[in-house]
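ARCHIVE CARD
Drawer: 12
Card no.: 0347
Subject: one protein chain, sequence and derived structure
Cross-reference: see card 0346
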Amino acid sequence: MKSFVKSFKYALHGLRYAYAHERNFRLEIYCAFAVCIGALIFNISKLEWFIVIINISVVLAFELINTAIENVCNMIYQSTHPTIKIIKDVSAAGVVIASASAFISGLIIFIPYFIKFIKI
């Protein structure tokens, strides 16, 4: 049980590190917070909440994985290297794809609520 608790402490340390050192992670956290506030205001359905939570989780997880990959690459090779650049670019592309998917899902969910709000 002690090692289980320790693993959570390490994970929280990783979250704190990412929040303190990764501008994109902070931006994604702020966007997630804004989306959740919008979801509460518009009283979205349980299924829509599920989709929002999954999308937020996927984007944040990809950002954390991208950060880990970049740090490993920087540790292995400090100067510019073509293969390291490809690794970092592909890792960042994963975050972009997850973010684009979350954005499109958000539009699909929230546009009808905005339309109803404007018509009232």
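Annotation on reverse: The radius of gyration is 18 Å. Residues 61 and 118 are 34 Å apart (CA to CA).
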